[in-house]
Amino acid sequence: MAGKKIDAFAGLRGYAIILVFLSHYSFGANSKGLNITNWLGALGVEVFIILSGFLLMENHGNTMFEFKPYYIRKVKKFYPLHFIMLLMAIPFSVKPLLGLDIEKWIALFSQVMLVQTWFPKPDIYFSFNGVAWYLSLTVFFIAVSPLTVKIWNKLTMRSSVIMMAGIAAAEIILCVVFRKSAFAHWILYVAPFVRILDFFMGGGAGSWYKPAIIIKNQNISVISQFFCWRKYAACPFFRVRTMNGFQLLFGLCRYRY
Predict the structure, then answer these.
(1) 20 to 30 A Cα–Cα from 207, which one of 79, 141, 152, 247?
(2) 88-140, pLDDT tens digit by residue?
(3) Which run of H or E residues covers position 16?
(4) In sequence order, what are the beta bridge partners of 35?
């Protein structure tokens, strides 16, 4: 099934792109000047991340693939354009760079290596080509893809349900603990070591995406929604984390066959 195009997922990507696009405009500003459409972008990003993990298992869950060629094939799809955009952004930061601003040079190096999301400062992970923060996550997801496939392939259905429930619980706890932290945005929205949980959940959904267990998936979908709504209630500011994207994916799992 590797490489098979699923039109429903292409449409889901389209909706996610629109949500991200709308979130960067201020027409939704309220009386206090706050953009009330910001959460739309968070939902779009959530769908992209979960869908990435889902499609990883859909396309490679039953195959063995070598890490190096897989990594190179994936990264070369976006890195050349990223590098061009980075070069175009550098002239806007010439003064601090020539002034040997250490933080700016760290930001530039992290952009080149696409590791900016590992730094907890917006001036670094949103620097230069700001939207490339998502590419930094993508590189990390690609790096852990072989391990993700290996883990989900080894788990039984019962173990995978327990794993998914554990991940959902962990995300709820993270939201409760860090939602008022000065680093809340970085930890809950940007940090790779937290966003990998969403990617891993998508992989889990993909591992269940089989005709032989589609009847069982009906119940699993209900269970997944329960955990997602629990997270919604526990973390209102980051309410779109997992909930909507996960529900949409399971809806597609249930009705494909």
Answers:
(1) 79
(2) 999 988 888 888 889 999 999 999 999 999 999 999 999 999 899 999 999 99
(3) helix 7-23
(4) 29
